[in-house]
Amino acid sequence: MFAIARKTSFFYFTHLVTFCAPAWPALLKGKGGIISMLAFWVPLWLSSSVLWSEKQESYALLRMLPVTDREIVRTKFGLALAAAFVYWLILLLFNWWAWESSWEYPFYRALANLTCAVSLPLVACWYIVSWRFGRSALTVGVLAFIALAIIPTFALNIDRWDWIGAPGIAAARWLAEGPWYLQFCIFLIALAAYYGLMQVAVRVKQKSEASL
Predict the structure, then answer these.
(1) What single string gives the DSSP state of each residue in 145-166?
(2) CA geometry: angle at 57 spanning 54 and 62, to 5°?
(3) How far is residue 144's CA from residue 140's CA, in Å, rounded to a whole number?
(4) pLDDT per residue over 103-125, tens digit each?
(5) In 10 A of CB 96, how many CB atoms?
């Protein structure tokens, strides 16, 4: 189990470093607008972590390990959940640093909550795709998702660097202006969906191993 955790966590950690790298210089220069773009990057970076970690493993390796399919799934899902939690904490820290004293702070915080919550079921689905259809299908799916998502990400946020009130934060306005428990409920729904998809992933993993 340690071998799986070590190999998988390496990609989550390196992607996390590349996620934070462009933010620090921008924040130090007072360009807090990058925060909204980073929030949209979370599902992209997590999807990329799943892709690269799965590409570096083989069924032959997993079969040699004295672990069950259920343990493999729980380990990978646990690491993905921990990574999403770290991304969420980093975004909250960046938001506090850049916008804590401004009227925009609640909108950036709501945007971070929304994208991190949505990332959980997305990552779970990528694992299921990998174990049900193979790594080739996962590669095509993740690359297509990144290509399609990165265009609107830049379109919605690039003008945020020079214009207050850009669509990047307006995208989460309904969430920020709603009751406080709405954001909490979104996380509960995301966690419930994540747990349910983990149970599906266990069955898919067991069937995929049996078919080899």
Answers:
(1) HHHHHHHHHHHHHGGGGT-TT-
(2) 120
(3) 6
(4) 777 888 888 899 999 999 999 99
(5) 13
Show the tokens assigned to 43.
């599902």
Of 135, 128, 133, 129, residue with least CA distance to 55: 135
CA distance 150 to 148: 6
Range of the domain at 12: 2-210
The total number of structural domains in the chain stands at 1
CA proximity to 142, closest of 16, 37, 53: 53
52 closest CA partner among 143, 120, 132, 113 = 143
- What does the pLDDT read at residue 196? 97
**Tokens, residue 130:** 């990998």
Q: How many residues does the chain have?
A: 212
| Encoded tokens for 173 | 């306005």
**Measured between alpha carbons, how far is 137 from 122 in angstroms, rounded to an integer?**
15
Q: What is the pLDDT of residues 121-163, one digit of tens each?
A: 999 999 999 999 988 999 999 999 988 887 766 665 544 444 4
